[in-house]
Design a protein that fits this description.
six-stranded mixed beta sheet, globular, binds zinc ion
Amino acid sequence: MARKVPLLKPAHVKARLKFANDHLDDLEESWEKVMWSDETKIELFGHNSTKCVWRKKNDEYHPKNTIPTVKHGGDSIMLWGCFSAHGTGRLHCIKERMTGAMYCEILGKYLLPSVRALKMGRGWVFQHDNDPKHTARITKEWLCKKHIKVLVWPSQSPDLNPIENLWRELKLHVSQRQPRNLTDLGKICVEEWAKIPPAVCANLLACWGLTSHLCAAVRLNWRSPKMARPSSNLTKFRKEFKKAKHIAIITGAGVSAESGVPTFRGQGGYWRKWQAQDLATPEAFSRDPSLVWEFYHYRREVMRSKMPNPAHLAIAECESRLSQQGRSVVIITQNIDELHHRAGSKHVYEIHGSLFKTRCMSCGEVKANHKSPICPALEGKGEPDPNAKDARIPVEDLPRCEKRGCNGLLRPHVVWFGETLDSDILTAVEKELEKCDLCLVVGTSSIVYPAAMFAPQVAGRGVPVAEFNMECTPATKRFKYHFEGPCGTTLPPALERHESEAI
Ligand SMILES: [Zn+2]
């Protein structure tokens, strides 16, 4: 019997397929080379109640995961599992508190046999997140000793791990079997995990892999198996900087984070009971436009107290200075907060749109909108507290199109999960990248989306790429520089006036 996993709707898949075909080649073999892994906690409640709550590690105090019975009931077990496009690997129940040493033991006992059983072949890549046990020295040394290539997985990146879908699938099937005790629970987990058909894994990755960010991240690693440490020599970087005529700067969430802009993603990133991926979707908007507008209204209002940080300012100052010398700086950002504009940057591509633009659902008009509140009905709404009541604003009182005779419902002009990027913007960005002779990746990694969509093509032309971020990750050889630390600290000295500049 075929099982269903939450996948994209056919229309989305089609759109993504087209996007992927247009922009990214040889995807399939790349994601097929990845062994995905993760841990998850599974709880067992009192013997009479078979109700289970499934949650991600570290989320236990979130209201979503607490029901009155949780306080007294329930033991739990941790599971470690892995899977690839060829099927599920071995599942292991972790009974004690896990340490780095235990993690290595698990990898030896369960990961490596799974790799062999699933016939991953040479050149496979291991994926795990940045849990401290995963990044512990002992683990790193173990992986290195075993010559295991690791897919770099920066902590600031969106929650991309497709294994989450399999955890949901597993938990559903396990709960149907009503485990009575922990031993039972562990046994059933292992059985149900093994029963997940390989086709489900392959399908999951086929759809998941077509999301641009993931493909790009995987593709890069796949093509560049040889890892080497990039240079962090600022003097050397400055020599390249002074020669550069066209500088492309790709910025990610880390730049906004340094201004205190919340992302509503990852650990602790909630607005009421939700994270961005729950509300930033076309489905959520059509289901409850009032709720989604409250969320965006809150995000717009929050920006009133946030300021551009030294990284934004250094970029803007550099653009303005270089433009007087006939040199150019272009900013390609995934951030929707307009802080680059507020810092004074002129040449900005917002590939995810902006919090301060609206799009009419009827006539399609895109318009800048900095009103506060955006409409009277939203005044004082959008409280992020988990106990706040939804405003349930009638749809006619939500922001509406002001074009004569239209009055259509407005939506935030941002790219939501499940949506593709604007092709005109992508074309323009690609032109800029073809022209650039130096590329900076700031507040994100060049091997995760969105930079991964762009940086490889730049590096492929032999153009130096420099990363400025918090992640201590070995970049591939093709990326020349890496400056670790807050970009508000590392970027200003890198972009300041060079002595060779006349102005
Ligand atoms: Zn309209």
